[in-house]
Amino acid sequence: MSTQYVDNFADDIGPIKILHIYKPKSQLRGIVVVDNLAMGPAAIGGCRMAPDVSTREVFRLARAMTLKNAVNGLPYGGGKSAIVGDPKSDLKETWMREFARAIRDLKEYIPGPDMGTDEQCMAWVHEEAGRAVGLPYSKGGLPLDELGATGFGVAVASDAASEWMQLPLENARVVIQGFGNVGRAAATCLLERGVHVIAVNDSDGGLHNPDGLNIPELFRWVQTRNLNRATHLGEPMERDRVLEIESDIFVPAARPDVFTEANQHLLKTRLVLEGANIPITHEAARVLHDRGIMVIPDIIANSGGVICAAAEYEGKTEDQAFDAIRKSVYRNTTALLKRVRERKQYPHDAALQMAREVLSKKMGLYAST
Ligand SMILES: NC(=O)c1ccc[n+]([C@@H]2O[C@H](COP(=O)([O-])OP(=O)(O)OC[C@H]3O[C@@H](n4cnc5c(N)ncnc54)[C@H](O)[C@@H]3O)[C@@H](O)[C@H]2O)c1
C-alpha cells in the first residue's frame, strides 16, 4: 500500500492523517489534513473552498495551524480541510453538507470558516457533523468573520509593530490584497488607527486612491457590484498591479504564495502583516527582510480567527475572545520583534522557533529551528 501523500510531507511534526473524499454524483472533492495533535485531542482549522486547492496546499495550511495554535498556547492541534470547487457554485450547500457527513466520525478535526466558506457554511457543517466553529449567533456561535476577529488581530499586530519600528499609524499608507472577511475587517480596524487605505483588490480587479479609499462606502458597494467598477471611489486597475503600489503597510489577505523569490522585488513597503495564510514563501520573506521590510508572519498576525474559534468552542463570550486576541497577538508580535532584533533572526524563523518551543515540550522533543 502506498503512503505517498504522507511520505511527501512527513517530518518530526506530522501530518498524522490525510483524508481524500470523493462523491461521484455531486463531484464533491474534499481534502482533510490533521497535522499534529500534541496541543490537544482535536485540531481546529478552517475549511477552504477554491477551484485550485491541492493536497499540498492543505498540508501547508494545516502545518500553519499546528504552529499557530502552539504559539498562541491554544489547547488544539493543527488541521485544515478543503473542498475543490468554485465558492460561487450552486452546489455549495450540497458540497458542504456532503463533506460534513463524510467527516462526521473524524472527531479529531473541528472545521471552521476559511477562504470561500462562511458562518452559514459552518451552520450546515454543524447540522450534519455535530461540530464546527465560527457559527452564526443563531446557532450559539461567535461568528468570527462577522465579528472581524482576524482583521482585529492584524490591527493589534500593527500596534505592536508600529511602536517597535517607530512607524506611526496615523496617515500611514496601507495596501490590502483581498477584500473578503479578513481584508475588510483589517481595513476597518486599521482605519480606526488613522491610516489611509490607498489600494485594495479582490479576485476580479483592483482600486487605487492615493488620498485613501472610502472603505465603508466601498464595503457597501461590493455587496452588489464589482469592486473595480467603483470608479467614483478610486482608479480601477488590473488585479495584480495593486501589489506594486508603494505603501507603508501591506496586508496580504487572499491567496497563498503571492510573493515568491521571483516577484518579491515588486513589493515596496515597510511592514507586512500577513492576514492570509502562507502568502509569502520563506525564501521570499528572507529577501524582503534583507531589503529592510519587516514581515509579521501569519501564525502570529492572523491568529485572531482561531483564538475566537477556540473561545467559542469553550463557551466564552465575545468580550473574552477579543481580550484574548488583543493580549496574545500583542505579546507574540512584541516577542517576535525582540527576537528578530536581539538574535538577528529572520521573522519567519523566529516565529517558527517560538511555536516549536511550545510544541516540542508537548511532544517531548527538544526544541529546534
Ligand atoms: N477568515 C479568517 O478568520 C481567517 C483567519 C486566518 C487566516 N485567514 C486567511 O486569510 C485569507 C483570506 O481569508 P478570508 O476569510 O478573508 O476569505 P474570503 O473568501 O472572505 O475573501 C478572500 C478575498 O480574496 C480575494 N481574492 C481571491 N483571489 C485573489 C487574488 N488572486 N488577488 C486578489 N484577491 C483575491 C477574493 O475575491 C476575496 O475578496 C486566507 O488565506 C485565509 O486562510 C482567514
UniProtKB/TrEMBL annotation:
Cross-referenced Pfam families = ELFV_dehydrog, ELFV_dehydrog_N
Task: Name the SUPFAM superfamilies on file.
Answer: Aminoacid dehydrogenase-like, N-terminal domain, NAD(P)-binding Rossmann-fold domains
**Protein known as:** Glutamate dehydrogenase
Q: List the active site.
A: 80
Q: Which organism is it from?
A: Nitrospina gracilis (strain 3/211)
Presence of keyword DNA damage: no
Q: Which InterPro entries match?
A: Aminoacid_DH-like_N_sf, Glu/Leu/Phe/Val/Trp_DH, Glu/Leu/Phe/Val/Trp_DH_C, Glu/Leu/Phe/Val/Trp_DH_dimer, Glu_DH, NAD(P)-bd_dom_sf
- Which GO MF terms are attached to this record? glutamate dehydrogenase (NAD+) activity; nucleotide binding
Q: Which residues bind substrate?
A: 68
Question: What are the binding positions for NAD(+) in this chain?
Answer: 150, 181
Q: Where is this site: Important for catalysis?
A: 114
